[in-house]
Amino acid sequence: MDALAEKLDARLRNWKPETAAEARERIMEVIELADQDVLDLARSRAAEQEVLDLLDEPPTR
After folding, report:
1. How many domains does the chain have?
2. What number of helices (H) and strands (E) belong to the chain?
3. Residue 61 in domain
4. Which pLDDT score, from 0 to 100, does residue 51 have?
5. Cα–Cα distance, 46 to 42 (Å, whole number)
């Protein structure tokens, strides 16, 4: 087994069930994008949320 897969397997078993479920969902999204060869075109949700958070911040003076 690949070292990354081994690390992921260990973490999934140790994380809270909710955290493991969320990680599984996100990993499946990445796998699907990679299978479609569009991984480089997709924005991560985290990056998108960072931009939205910046837009919501009050302006600094």
Report:
1. 1
2. 3, 0
3. no
4. 87
5. 12
CA nearest to 43, candidates 51, 35, 56, 4: 51
As a dihedral over the C-alpha atoms of residue 22, residue 27, residue 28, residue 29, rounded to 10 degrees, the angle is 90
Q: How far apart are CA 57 and CA 61, in angstroms?
A: 12
Where in the sequence is the domain holding 23, given as residue range(s)? Answer: 3-56
pLDDT truncated to tens, each residue of the chain (61 aa)? 699 999 999 999 999 999 999 999 999 988 998 898 887 766 677 788 888 888 988 877 6
The dihedral region occupied by 4, where left means phi > 0, alpha psi between -120 and 50, and beta the remainder, is alpha
Residue 43 lies in a domain: yes
pLDDT value of residue 59: 75
Looking at this protein, which amino acid is placed at residue 28?
M
